[in-house]
């Protein structure tokens, strides 16, 4: 079951994208890393179910799992046999990820059973000041991870979204005790294991007690993660990567911390609402993450068995999204957004160059750009908005005409599982440079289409 699309009246109320995004060809920002080519869950427990090329072709980089929502299963909190089933699921997903060069974030909270389906009387770590059940889980997991060579390329997520009551039914203070207890244990017994957090559902904010409590705690204890993580799935227009990363760095400084102090990169290990998982907003998120050099994993809005399928919505297959769905079914095809990630991975080669989004704090239009010295490629999208805007590309060390090829990546907001093939070529034309600069108009007549420009 997937989260529903917003009502039409809500979409109509959103302001259109306007302004000009910019590309600076003379300002290199490093080689392509495909930082946005990750997703949470989405991998079947049968490693052969999804053909290898679907992972390979998008330069798959990251996943995140822990056996969530298996049938009739509540995890370690209920029984050892439930734990074993979830561990086996996560181990299979880990091996699939590693076989394709991807890194794996381990959701120990899902192994515990905190995946949103717990009964009201569910047990939580530290209840009645008894931590033995949690300690025993760590003991068992450490032994199993070592026995199954489950540590290379692994990142350990101490708890997922504790700020949401259905994933953590206790206080901020209890969560911070859990953080310290787990952090100290793993640093002692698995010193090379990378730890990530806080993995809050909310982006950084001084008004958020979970963020402020966490930063104060890790500053005072020195229990700084190896990878900073949070989620960007609110759909709020102010939740841009520019705003969240800038505020995060300010908050680190205010607490006497720095990214270097934690040897940490940034991983937005869940990004994009369900309505944003279409070509235009997919391109927008790619641009946002790449500009900040932040890892990103697409959110997954499926439930039950479907959570472990479809590469988090990048693929479809017969019965997808219907009561005819079969978990072990095959016959996969690329969805509309898959084509965007395919182009991002396969075609956008050479080196990245600096870009800027459209004007305004909401940054409703954005671009990601690369050049290999022969072809400049620009991927353009909006945050699921229609409107008229432009892309200005500057920094050419020549004058005269250039060839511009325009591609369109279409989508269908009513059927995210619909099959889509290669993007449509809209036009091929010559355009005159003006003082080493080129202005390309972009007209989004719908909220779903992404565009690519290839300039030679």
TrEMBL record:
Limits of the Glycosyl hydrolases family 39 N-terminal catalytic domain: 130-225
Superkingdom, taxonomy of origin: Eukaryota
GO molecular function: hydrolase activity, acting on glycosyl bonds
Listed Pfam families: Glyco_hydro_39 (PF01229)
Keyword Cell wall biogenesis/degradation: no
InterPro entries: GH (IPR017853), GH39_cat (IPR049166)
Keywords: Glycosidase, Hydrolase
Protein family (similarity comment): Belongs to the glycosyl hydrolase 39 family.
Protein name in the entry: Glycosyl hydrolases family 39 N-terminal catalytic domain-containing protein
Source organism (scientific name): Cyphellophora europaea (strain CBS 101466)
């Amino acid at each position: 079951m997937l989260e529903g699309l917003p009502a039409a009246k809500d979409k109509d109320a959103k302001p259109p994208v306007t302004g000009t995004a910019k590309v600076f060809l003379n300002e290199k920002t490093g080689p392509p890393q495909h930082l946005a080519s990750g997703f949470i869950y989405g991998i079947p427990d049968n490693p052969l179910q999804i053909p290898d090329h679907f992972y390979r072709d998008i330069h798959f980089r990251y996943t995140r799992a822990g056996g969530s929502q298996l049938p009739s299963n509540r995890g370690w909190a209920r029984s050892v046999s439930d734990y074993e089933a979830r561990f086996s699921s996560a181990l299979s997903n880990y091996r699939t990820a590693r076989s394709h060069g991807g890194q794996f974030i381990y959701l120990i909270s899902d192994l515990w059973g905190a995946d949103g389906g717990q009964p009201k009387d569910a047990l939580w770590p530290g209840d009645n000041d008894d931590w033995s059940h949690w300690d025993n889980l760590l003991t068992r997991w450490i032994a199993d991870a070592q026995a199954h060579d489950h540590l290379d390329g692994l990142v350990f997520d101490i708890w997922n979204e504790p700020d949401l009551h259905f994933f953590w039914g206790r206080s901020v203070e209890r969560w911070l005790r859990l953080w310290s207890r787990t952090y100290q244990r793993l640093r002692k017994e698995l010193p090379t294991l990378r730890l990530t957090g806080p993995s809050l559902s909310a982006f950084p904010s001084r008004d958020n007690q979970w963020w402020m409590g966490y930063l104060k705690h890790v500053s005072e204890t020195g229990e700084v993660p190896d990878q900073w993580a949070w989620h960007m799935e609110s759909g709020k227009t102010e939740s841009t990567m520019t705003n969240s990363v800038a505020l995060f760095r300010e908050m680190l400084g205010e607490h006497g911390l720095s990214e270097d102090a934690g040897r940490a990169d940034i991983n937005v290990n869940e990004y994009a609402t369900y309505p944003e998982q279409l070509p235009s907003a997919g391109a927008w998120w790619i641009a946002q993450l790449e500009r900040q050099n932040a890892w990103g994993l697409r959110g997954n809005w499926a439930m039950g068995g479907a959570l472990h399928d479809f590469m988090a919505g990048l693929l479809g297959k017969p019965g997808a999204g219907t009561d005819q769905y079969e978990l072990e079914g095959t016959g996969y095809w690329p969805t509309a957004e898959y084509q965007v990630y395919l182009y991002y991975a396969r075609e956008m080669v050479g080196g990245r160059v600096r870009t800027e989004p459209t004007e305004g704090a909401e940054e409703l239009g954005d671009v990601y750009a690369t050049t290999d010295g022969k072809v400049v490629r620009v991927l353009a999208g909006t945050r699921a908005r229609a409107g008229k805007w432009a892309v200005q590309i500057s920094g050419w060390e020549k004058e005269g005409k250039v060839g511009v090829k325009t591609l369109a990546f279409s989508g269908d907001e009513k059927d995210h599982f619909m099959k889509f093939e290669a993007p449509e070529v809209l036009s091929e034309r010559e355009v005159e440079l003006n003082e080493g600069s080129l202005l390309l108009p972009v007209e989004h007549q719908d909220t779903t289409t992404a565009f690519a420009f290839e300039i030679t």
